[in-house]
Amino acid sequence: MLRLFGRKRAITRIGLVPPVAQPGRAGLALVLIVRNEARHIGEWARFHAAAGVSRFIVYDNGCTDGTLEALEAAVPGMAVVIPWDQKLLAGTAEIHNQVLAYAHATRNFGGAFRWMSYLDVDEFLVPKRANSLTEALAHLEGCRNISLPWHMFGRNGHGEAPEGGVVANYTRRNPDPMSAAKGLRNFKMIVDPCHVTAIRVHTIWTGGSDATCNDRGEQFSAAGREAAAFYSADHIQLNHYYTRSDAELRAKIARGPNLTTPDADHLRRVMRKVAHIEAGEIEDRSAPEFLARSGR
Q: How far does the chain reach from its first CA to its final CA, in angstroms?
């Protein structure tokens, strides 16, 4: 059952009745909405399979480039694929397609899993010390909702997409995940899906509350997580490879946003964010270090 909230132009929050927990539910499921990411989806899926993800719930937003075939080849039998090529309106308001997919996944698949997270193919959940994400989450059993701040990676000097994948080739990021620079500070969540009552892309309500924990288990409100004191990446780091190479950045701009937005506005926002990401970059090898530690 869904309940819709929104403004006149766009509906970006969807409420739902949580799924019922199934007996023996366990593991972490990742939800992904994807369109034409054949080059990168295999690496993304293999990385998260190595990190202990149980299931990939993938919403096909009109892929035409072999993305789904690459996904199946990378993680045979681990992905559920749902066709999701649509634009829906409630009156004149566009329903955010990504949020709608997240709500659908939670309600229809969430009861089977202890944890669920909602990512894009340029976002990687990196265990910092543990050998798997479920091991990294073990001390957070008392939390229903965990917010992880973006660690924003730039072009790393690449004009064209390099061979060898994202993790090996992109190791420079903005130094401050809690930066106040426009577009840098945001979060994705890992949640107990059986308590989810409303979803936006970057905020999830559990049990009717926006209370959320950092990865140390310290609880804040959704507004409170904006403060520097919230920051932690002690156990799990969320790497956001926002631009990749310059060529891929141009393709990202050409694809457009998830909601219908004038082209000039989209270009301005993207380029502003890129400039902020690449200001004062630092080296960060957390993702390749995890793969080396796991023997991948």
A: 41
